[in-house]
Design a protein that fits this description.
Blueprint lengths: L12 E5 L8 E6 L3 E8 L2 E6 L10 H10 L3 E9 L1 E2 L2 E2 L1 H6 L5 H10 L3 E10 L2 E2 L5 H11 L8 E3 L6 H10 L7 E6 L9 E7 L2 E12 L6 E9 L5 E7 L4 H15 L14 H6 L20 E13 L2 E2 L2 E2 L4 E5 L38
Parallel strand pairs: 1-12, 8-10
Antiparallel strand pairs: 2-11, 3-4, 3-5, 5-8, 6-7, 8-9, 11-12, 13-14, 13-16, 14-15, 16-19, 17-18
């Protein structure tokens, strides 16, 4: 490729906040729940780069063709790969696309086709635009989408009105959106720097602590495995609590030690501790193989079903916490049996047509 920017390019990052910033000089966009992707196109050559430098091109062959049809001959565009359904964004279906078998990739490309949502323009023809202010980059990006939209390549909506952003934050969570992005209008594109803000939802739930994973350094607890009971009394794995300090990781080893004795006997996830079951779990069981890193050790240590933790989470997708939770405190006053799905706040689904046009095309303008 002969572009002003060539792979890998580190995407610009954001700091998490929990209310919409209202400072002067900010623009706002919905925060999409998908795979961050920077598209590099030089004629017929096209590459989909991920935020961790893992190429995504082979997993989304249908998207390669859509982007060739929709984008200029030579450009670099930052955006998000998503799977859109009638009920909203489907991150589970998106994850299924990361499969090593070419035949399965081809089948899923037809069954659950992906879309690309553009939100920044980093290069066009021979021009490197990363030094230009976001306001100018956005204007050039909008010009590229002046023609009727392609059914699988969209321009993200944008507004400078914080009240509209606040409305998006509340209204579109049920469609699977992560929240809202706030971007300084006069800022250049700064690779791997947290110069934007992501406004995220935050809630708490009381969960059963059913096991843990060791930290990668082997010296402490890396994450707690969390469970919730359904109406039939089945304990489901709903996610993890992690991001502990080094000192807290070591403390947790001692705190959890009494619960390890005899933990596997009668454990509701006992069959998942079997190595073969873990290898076939594909991420749905506590020991399932990571789709992003097949070498990552996801083996786990069971705990007796006695401990309850209050956990901070953002939102639930397909019965699980979409992102890792954070431990608030242990709750000795709660019984494990009281930790059910009923406590989770359900957000009614929003129709994507409120953000996309009647034909499924993103207008790039704030929805009314």
């Amino acid at each position: 490729m002969h572009l002003p920017l060539t792979p890998p390019v580190k995407p610009m990052l954001a700091k998490a906040v929990y209310s919409v910033p209202r400072d002067d000089g900010l623009g706002y966009e919905p925060k999409w729940d998908g795979f961050r992707c920077i598209v590099f196109r030089d004629g017929d050559e096209l590459e989909l780069g991920s935020r961790n430098d893992r190429p995504l091109t082979r997993y989304f062959p249908e998207l390669v063709e859509h982007l060739r049809a929709a984008l200029p001959e030579r450009c670099v565009v930052d955006g998000e790969i998503v799977v859109v359904t009638g009920d909203g964004l489907d991150f589970d279906a998106l994850q299924q696309r990361l499969h090593p078998a070419a035949s399965r990739v081809a089948r899923l490309a037809a069954e659950t086709p992906a879309s690309f949502v553009a939100f920044d323009l980093l290069a066009l023809d021979d021009r490197d635009l990363t030094g230009a202010p976001f306001r100018a980059r956005r204007a050039e990006l909008e010009a590229l989408f002046a023609e009727p939209a392609h059914p699988h390549v969209h321009l993200t909506p944008f507004t400078e009105d914080p009240d509209v952003a606040e409305d998006w934050f509340t209204r579109f969570e049920g469609a699977g959106f992560d929240g809202v992005m706030a971007k300084p209008l006069d800022a250049p594109y700064q690779q791997d720097k947290r110069v934007m803000w992501k406004v995220k939802h935050e809630r708490t739930a009381d969960c059963v602590v059913a096991g843990f994973r060791w930290h990668k350094d082997g010296q402490g607890v890396g994450s707690l495995l969390l469970g919730l009971y359904d109406d039939e009394g089945n304990l489901h794995h709903v996610g993890v609590a992690s991001s502990f300090t080094a000192a807290r990781r070591r403390e947790l080893v001692d705190e959890l030690a009494p619960l390890r004795e005899g933990a596997l006997e009668g454990h509701p996830w006992r069959s998942w501790a079997d190595a073969q079951a873990q290898a076939q779990a594909a991420g749905k069981m506590p020991g399932g193989v990571s789709r992003w890193n097949a070498q990552k050790d996801l083996s786990w240590e069971p705990l007796r079903i006695e401990l309850v933790a209050e956990v901070r989470y953002e939102h639930v997708l397909a019965g699980r916490f979409r992102h890792g939770g954070r431990l608030v405190r242990f709750r000795p006053d709660r019984t494990p049996e009281s930790c059910t799905y009923a406590q989770l706040e359900e957000v009614p689904p929003a129709e994507l047509s409120a953000i996309f046009g009647s034909g499924g095309e993103a207008t790039g303008r704030p929805p009314s």
